[in-house]
Write a structure and sequence with these properties.
This protein has three helices and ten strands; from the N terminus they run H-E-E-E-E-E-E-E-E-E-E-H-H. By secondary structure, it is α+β, with helices and mostly antiparallel strands.
Length: 186
């Protein structure tokens, strides 16, 4: 028998053997890179300021530790907690920012994107919620494509990261400053 993706294997042993790949900025490593699904293990800790718009659903199974998604919806920031042992199906086009403030492990399943179905990343002003910058990409690899977009945003000047509505400068790569601004807002 020829099994294209190999025999069953111990997922937790795989995670232990590949722990070095589960590091920021994305913390993802593909389990089956040539599959018709995008199946990743995601490590932690990791915090982000971008919001991902996926044209398809995402399945999160939080194996170890706790995580949450910052959600941008209907003009408001909201939060969905995903605790250890919980599974969550995120609908398509819900702008979300995965936050993994503690060590952990998440099993993430997404659909591959047909040509023309673009993912986007947005950065918002934590003070007033206005979009500061957006980039779209034909996603081929979460591990390779997202960090390239992050670098583009982080390389922008303070003036280019200034909110067009309230004038607050998005702190770019300084995750803790953005989260502090968001907390002060609420």
């Amino acid at each position: 028998m020829d099994l294209q993706f190999g025999n069953p294997f111990n997922l937790m042993q795989w995670a232990e053997d590949n722990a070095g790949r589960l590091k920021p900025p994305v913390c993802n490593a593909a389990l089956f890179p040539d599959s018709s699904y995008i199946i990743n293990m995601v490590g932690g800790p990791n915090t982000r300021t971008d919001f991902h718009d996926n044209p398809y659903e995402e399945i999160f199974y939080q194996i170890k530790g706790n995580a949450y998604l910052n959600i941008w919806d209907r003009g408001h920031f909201e939060r969905v907690d995903i605790k250890e042992g919980e599974v969550f199906l995120l609908p398509a086009h819900v702008q979300h920012s995965p936050q993994r403030p503690e060590p952990g492990l998440c099993f993430l399943v997404e659909q591959t994107r047909p040509l023309g179905d673009l993912d986007s990343l947005q950065w918002y002003c934590a003070n007033c919620g206005t979009q500061v910058w957006r980039a779209e990409k034909q996603l081929e690899s979460l591990v390779d494509d997202l960090p390239a977009i992050y670098k583009l945003f982080y390389a922008r000047s303070d003036e280019e990261r200034r909110c067009p509505n309230c004038g607050t400068v998005h702190p770019g790569k300084d995750y803790s400053a953005w989260h502090a601004q968001l907390k002060a807002r609420s």
